[in-house]
Design a protein that fits this description.
With 291 residues, the chain is an alpha/beta fold. It contains 9 helices and 10 strands. The termini are close together.
Amino acid sequence: MTAAGSPIVAGVDGSAESLDAVRWAARTARLREAPLEIVHALDVPALLAGGVVPPPEEMVDALRARGRRALRTAQELAAAQGVPDAATRLDPDRAAQALIGASRSAALLVVGAAGHGRLTSLLAGSVAAAVGTHARCDTVVVRGDSWDEPGASARPVVTGVDGSEAGARVLATALAEARTRGAPLLVLHAWADSPPPHRDPRCVTEAGRRLLGERVLAHDTGDVEVEQVVVHAHPRKELVERSGTAQLVVLGDRGRGGFPGLLLGSTGQALLHHAACPVHLVRTTAENTSA
């Protein structure tokens, strides 16, 4: 686990999507009263000729100048969101390695959903597996613009429950996010398979309701308004639809963390491409939840 006072880290590459991520990260840092760090990856290894010959110094200088400009713009955006003291860092490494390194001391990583093929496209692109597997903290992929609309703060945080141990961690994180944001929480259980022979679908739905009730009762909901919903639908389809009226969707990073097999697979990739609001990936594996 990260220590108290660990920063929220936002990746920026100068694209509009990455700047959206900075604004979202700054608002969250303000709500959590947490420090904010903004990272720009120079990707110097990509310039190595033949993988061994260092690039011309003027080329590296140009990258640094562009990176500093991107960081200054990001700092100004963070200040406009009430975080005037955001730290900045130029990292010479590739984007994936830069974020994975930053995650070791971060409370949360925040990236945009698309961009210039650097930080903002990580989780929807070719290096998704590396970040999803090795990041040591939760990651938020900022999607859509509904989170920035007037009244968006009243929209619910949405999460899923499947009865697994990892799902309990996801639910705890979703409750914490809802409490921090003063938002209601919608807890969803979706089942897409046909019920066993001679078993009434209503019985399956009732079993889902019992599961939800037990899981929610196991947590201190405090003053968070919790709505429990059971539906016969594919989890991916249901989550994408619910994201249209949510301010945040909270999921496990893989396997049975919230919904079986959602992330690091075709279903998770589809969600990251089509969700209408930011997606919070909760680190549920032992490797990534220990410092």
